[in-house]
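Class prep. Write one:
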Amino acid sequence: CGQPVLNNRIVGGVEAPSGSWPWQVSLHTFTSGHFCGGSLINDQWVMTAAHCVQGTHHVKHQEGSNPNEVVRTVSRIISHPDYYFGPDNDIAILKLFTPVNFTSYISPVCLAASNSTFYSGVKSWVTGWGETGYYGELKRTPTYDQRICDYSEIAGDIISDNMICAGFREGGKGPCFGDSGGPLVSKQGDRWIQAGIVSFGIGCAKPFFPAVYARVSQYNNWINTNCV
């Protein structure tokens, strides 16, 4: 996992060459186009944000948007049992009707271990097909000190230990509409590790309001238990 063969935009981002992020998933309904992102975590399961799939029963997904993409129907949606349409526990996993075959363009990402820590300032990347002109595909975004990730004046005390904040204080780069559910990854050694799932924010890439991500390491056991 986490080793793209071909990896030698989001707001303020740049277009990623085909195969650079082979775990990137685009969620579609049968009647409309892209609505959320996701990440391939093994040959038959995709991880995304729970708010992306609430009330959704007919979902398909695809990895990439190029001649090497594949399309699969989702056969099962499992949202975290403690997700209640709020920002906390914003994670879901989707079982594909049939597995995918791994290629140079399609392969899974590694997941952050339960005991892993992502310190403030760690260079991370967020990918997706959301809006790019609001203020994406590929954007570098450093993780934020949790102590200064403060939404209290706008939304109360909503930042929990189940979340990671990432972004630039000056704004300008970060996920936007349509990027929800997509991966926040960082490189550790020769592997890419997914630390977060795009969850929410105030607008898109606004100064002093970093994007907030579900913290993958908090859900490692839940993911492993349910991906059967």
Notes: Residues 133-139 have pLDDT under 50 and may be disordered. Residues 109-218 form a domain with the Thrombin, subunit H fold (CATH 2.40.10.10). The first helix runs from residue 50 to 53. The chain has two domains: 22-108+220-227, 109-218.
